[in-house]
């Protein structure tokens, strides 16, 4: 039995699966990750500001125009479509086998694929709000805004994406819900994440179930704790698993 067949077998026997994913989940959908050789943090090294600076709260407050230039050019991929990983997870949820998707991504591809119980640790590009009156704006409002810094049509306040920037805390309710679903899961699938971003990466330590499967192209600090390691592209692997499940 190869690794993909083993993964399919464990999925078949499980009834309470949780998926924990990062940027690598969406690379096959055409969205660059952050820390790989071709990732955003590497390709932007020669910018006057490093990505960690551009994506910080103090930078947004002081230079919203520069932030939005970077954000629109590098962080928004409205035409991206779900890949095999997103689609299989949506299927497993619909079949009652998958309890939740916990994601560090902000792209909304899990929802586009059909998943409904998605815990977005770092927020979403699809939710935006006026910092003054809290009026909601969708992604199209940000993309089509006439000014570099989008402003509220009701009060003129600056609109901020509902994404967690550096120096901002994660939503405590999302964290508690993540701990809850991980604590009760019988199979944990970890995919497309270097597991270096905290406190998000620490969440998987709450899993006490039967098997942990790590699907990641590069080594992580948690490799030795996984019951199964798969380094092939996650979308391709999940397509094969989908076929094996019938």
TrEMBL record:
List of residues binding Zn(2+): 130, 133, 152, 155
Superkingdom assignment: Bacteria
Entry annotation: catalytic residues: 122 (proton acceptor)
Chain ranges of the Deacetylase sirtuin-type domain: 1-246
Pfam families cross-referenced by the UniProt entry: SIR2 (PF02146)
Enzyme Commission (EC) number: 2.3.1.286
Catalytic EC class: transferase
Cofactor(s) needed: Zn(2+)
Binding site for nicotinamide: 34, 106-107
Residues where NAD(+) binds: 23, 27, 34-35, 104, 106-107, 122, 193-194, 216-217, 234
Compartments (UniProt record): Cytoplasm
Protein function: NAD-dependent protein deacetylase which modulates the activities of several enzymes which are inactive in their acetylated form.
NCBIfam families cross-referenced by the UniProt entry: PRK00481.1-1
Similarity comment: family membership: Belongs to the sirtuin family. Class U subfamily.
Protein name (Swiss-Prot/TrEMBL): NAD-dependent protein deacetylase
Organism: Paenibacillus taichungensis
């Amino acid at each position: 039995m190869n690794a993909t067949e083993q993964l399919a077998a464990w999925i078949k026997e499980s009834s309470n699966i949780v998926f924990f994913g990062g940027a690598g989940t969406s690379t096959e959908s055409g969205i660059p990750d952050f820390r790989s050789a071709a990732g955003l943090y590497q390709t932007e090294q020669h910018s006057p500001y490093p990505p960690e600076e551009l994506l910080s709260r103090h930078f947004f407050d002081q230079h919203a125009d520069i932030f939005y230039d970077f954000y629109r050019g590098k962080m928004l991929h409205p035409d991206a479509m779900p890949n095999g990983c997103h689609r299989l997870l949506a299927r497993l949820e619909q079949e009652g086998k998958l309890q939740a998707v916990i994601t560090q991504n902000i792209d909304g591809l899990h929802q586009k694929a059909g998943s409904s119980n998605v815990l977005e640790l770092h927020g979403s590009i699809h939710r935006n709000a006026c910092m003054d009156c809290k009026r909601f704006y969708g992604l199209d409002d940000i993309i089509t805004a006439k000014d570099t810094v989008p402003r509220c049509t009701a009060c003129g306040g600056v609109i901020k994406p509902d994404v967690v920037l550096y120096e901002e805390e994660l939503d405590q309710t999302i964290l508690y819900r993540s701990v809850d679903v991980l604590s009760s899961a019988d199979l944990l699938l970890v995919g497309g994440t270097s597991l270096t971003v905290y406190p998000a990466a620490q969440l998987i330590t709450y899993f006490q179930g039967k098997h942990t499967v790590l699907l990641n192209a590069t080594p992580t600090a948690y490799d030795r704790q996984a019951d199964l390691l798969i380094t092939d592209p996650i979308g391709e692997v999940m397509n094969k698993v989908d076929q094996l499940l019938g």
